[in-house]
Amino acid sequence: MTVDLDAMSLKELRDLRNKLDRAISTFEDRRKREALAAVESAAREFGFNLAELTAARPARSKVAAKYANPQDPSATWTGRGRKPRWVQEALDSGKKLEDLEI
Questions:
Q1: What is the per-residue pLDDT for 52?
Q2: 65 and 78 in contact (C-beta within 8 Å)?
Q3: In degrees rounded to 5, what are phi and psi of residue 38?
């Protein structure tokens, strides 16, 4: 199918664009429905339904802070992950981690 865009009027070009937009949207919707059907089928093969597999997992509970900055008690650390600068500075100055415990 060859379309001579140069020979078309502005109205014809806009109509063509609208038809293309609708065709693309319809195509994408159809592909999404096909993908969803395939995923649901795969879930059934494993004995699940899609809702079971996509249900939100419970969020991890927050870990309580174990250490606080003596100069700024609002600055806390749980003891997990990288040490904050204030913890490292306290350790470098001769304090022990136990000295910073809450």
A1: 87
A2: yes
A3: -65, -40
Cα distance between residue 91 and residue 85, in whole Å:
10
pTM of the model: 0.46
3-state secondary structure (DSSP) of residue 68: strand
Helix (H) or strand (E) holding 67: strand 67-68
101/97 Cα distance (integer angstroms): 7
CA distance 90 to 96: 8
CA separation for the pair 84, 45 (Å, rounded): 48
What's the rounded mean pLDDT across residues 18-41?
A: 96
Residue 16 and residue 8: Cα distance in Å, rounded? 10
CA 85/CA 75 separation, integer angstroms: 11
For residue 3, the one-letter residue type is V
Indicate the pLDDT class of residue 65, thresholds 50, 70 and 90. very high
